[in-house]
Design a protein that fits this description.
Chain lengths: 368, 258
């Protein structure tokens, strides 16, 4: 145990002495939360919207006016055909298109109500979701006012359609994504680089000849990075909660449990990389290109998986971050219980164990 | 060639390292081909050979890092086939890269290895001071290793390797890249260690260093082709320097150096 303590102490010294890396590791998560966070919560004001209105009656005019007089929207052109809708997004800078049906004003008297379509540009899911939410609430406000006049409940249900991104991505979803990236960065990348550094400098050789058990060498390498990930986990959660107002709807304990499991998988990945790579630069490339990029692009953090080619969607299944993000979204934002994330937890634990098993096997082979 | 007695137990007395027909195969390739030798306590044993001759593999077997494919060996009184953990506690090792941690201070490096080798906590501080005093490094106690000159690092690495008073210290090309004056200095430290009863097992590329050894073995293609005192070897091969002896033997190699 004394051996182990001496070695863990040494690992902390390495990290604490490397000021820049230390600062990057602790500040990067904060920067990311702020960057992504404010990217998300930007107030949407003065967005131009277009209207496709075959009815042209009092009611449609009223709705259009309601939007146009609000601080959020500015009325642009009236469209003449559906084929123009896509061009609104591709060639002019419209944020929203309002589509009414025929004889809108008459249908509003129907007991089932009438539908209105809101089309937004889903390639920017955050803005799109904010715009459609604003517009929807303005429309229902108008419907209420109208109902008062007529003393009869009128129903206008906005149908939201996102072009280019069929699934609505909630703005809060980015926070689990940031955690996914940061933890991979610290646990997988830093651990693998630190282990390969020992190989490169020849100190690993000396350690292997020493009575220190290989298992302990690896284990004590992980401890400092494990601690740093915990620090980052708390900064990310605190910042996103108090600064961005992201709710933690579900159980806090469950959020921590899922994060710990994900940290375990990431550490295992770092370990595996270090059994493959002989040089720090190789470890850096493997974890950078092989882990970070897939995590950013294929985990559903930034780009919705649903709109990707099927092959990539399949590939995304082997990326731990994907399951972590799903689980975190379910618990943190949707407030679901453990049963709803059981599948994700099992998959993550399975992945972690498999990687640990493979690394130990590889490590032994290398020793021979 | 040394003779290997039939009675193991009598052979082992006074022998710190004892190997009989050690063999290591990787697939069809025989890296170490039936080598046998014995080394006595306090001896400085030079382990020579061209790159790829099998030196490293042989040393890995002796230090408990890899198991022989066949053959027997005893290091510091423990069987290399079954007791590698005990062997590791009783040997010291210094690699060709002076494997100290550059971003740790001098005393931190000493403390780390002392901890790894289980030196009792009470002894670490006085022994550290004593060591720094002997090396003349008192002022460098808090210096980061990276700012020490190469020759100093090497001295420190050697001192760290024998800090726990091992029975044997394995030195893997310890003087690579160091100037001749520093090398001579370093060999003085080796002699001091040997005088204290620590057996020194050293591999080297420098043939002048081979002359400093009590006995020298020369490996060619996985076999030990010569083993004797430097003087006897020179007589045997009718050479004036160890360099000539080495080239005479290495010429027979059929393996490509890697």
């Amino acid at each position: 145990m004394k051996q182990f303590a001496a070695f863990v102490k040494k690992e902390f010294r390495h990290i604490l002495r490397d000021h820049w890396t230390m600062i990057i590791l602790l500040v990067l998560p904060i920067l990311m939360v702020i960057l992504f966070g404010y990217g998300i919560s930007t107030e949407v004001k003065n967005t131009r919207f277009a209207v496709l209105d075959p009815s042209r009656d009092v009611v449609t005019q009223g709705i259009v006016n309601k939007l146009a007089t609000s601080e959020y929207f500015i009325l642009g052109d009236y469209l003449t055909s559906e084929s123009q809708i896509e061009q609104c997004f591709t060639h002019s800078n419209y944020g929203l298109v309002l589509v009414f049906g025929n004889r809108f004003g008459e249908q509003i008297m129907d007991p089932d109500g009438v539908q209105i379509q809101l089309i937004a540009d889903g390639s920017d899911p955050n803005t799109a979701s904010i715009l459609t939410t604003y517009a929807s609430s303005l429309i229902s406000l108008y419907a209420k006012e109208l109902s008062k006049e007529d003393e009869k409940a009128l129903l206008i249900s906005p149908q939201v359609k996102l072009l280019f991104n069929p699934s609505m991505k909630n703005s809060f979803n980015t926070v689990p994504g940031i955690m996914g990236v940061i933890i991979i960065l610290i646990c997988a990348l830093m651990t693998s680089v630190s282990l390969t550094r020992e190989k490169e400098h020849g100190t690993m050789e000396v350690l292997l000849v020493s009575p220190m058990r290989p298992f302990l060498i690896i284990f004590s390498k992980m401890i400092p990075y494990f601690c740093i990930s915990l620090v980052n986990l708390s900064t990310i959660l605190l910042l996103s909660h108090y600064m961005l107002g992201v709710p933690i709807v579900g159980s806090f304990g469950l959020v921590v449990l899922i994060s710990l499991i994900y940290i375990f998988v990431s550490l295992a990945l770092g370990l595996f990389i270090s059994t493959v790579a002989e040089k720090q630069i190789v470890a850096l490339l493997i974890s950078g290109a092989g882990l970070m990029l897939p995590v950013v692009y294929l985990s559903g953090m930034m780009f919705p998986l649903e709109s990707m080619p099927v092959a990539l969607q399949w590939f995304a299944n082997i990326i731990p971050a994907k399951w972590f993000i799903i689980a975190m979204r379910n618990v943190m934002i949707k407030g679901l219980g453990i049963t709803s994330v059981l599948r994700e937890i099992i998959i993550l634990v399975g992945m972690g164990s498999l990687i640990v098993f493979a690394s130990i096997k590889r490590f032994k082979i290398r020793l021979e | 060639m040394t003779s290997i007695g039939t009675d193991k137990t009598t052979q082992q007395i006074g022998k710190v390292i004892w190997a009989e027909n050690l063999c290591k195969k990787f697939g069809a390739f025989t890296a170490v081909d039936h080598i046998s030798f014995e080394i006595e306590k306090g001896e400085i044993f030079g382990f020579l050979g061209a790159n790829g001759a099998g030196k490293t593999t042989a040393m890995r077997m002796l230090t408990g890092l890899s198991k022989p494919t066949s053959g027997k060996g005893v290091v510091a009184g423990f069987d290399i086939n079954t007791q590698s953990e005990q062997i590791k506690k009783n040997i010291g090792y210094m690699s060709q890269k002076f494997a100290l941690y550059e971003d740790l201070k001098v005393w931190e490096n000493i403390r780390l290895y002392a901890g790894i080798y289980g030196v009792p906590k009470k002894e670490i501080a006085p022994r550290t001071d004593d060591l720094l005093h002997r090396l003349g490094f008192e002022k460098e106690k808090d210096t980061l290793v990276k700012s020490l000159p190469l020759g100093w690092k090497q001295k420190l690495a050697f001192s760290v390797a024998i800090f726990h008073e091992p029975k044997i210290v394995f030195l893997d090309e310890p003087t690579g890249g160091v100037d001749p004056a520093a090398r001579r200095n370093f060999w003085e430290m080796i002699y001091q260690a040997a005088d204290r009863g620590i057996t020194v097992f050293v591999t080297t590329h420098y043939m002048d260093e081979a002359e400093y050894c009590n006995r020298v073995s020369i490996m060619v293609d996985g076999r030990i082709d010569a083993l004797d005192t430097p003087k006897n070897l020179k007589d045997q091969f009718n050479a004036s320097t160890m360099d000539e002896v080495f080239h005479h033997l290495a010429r027979k190699s059929t393996r490509n150096a890697d």
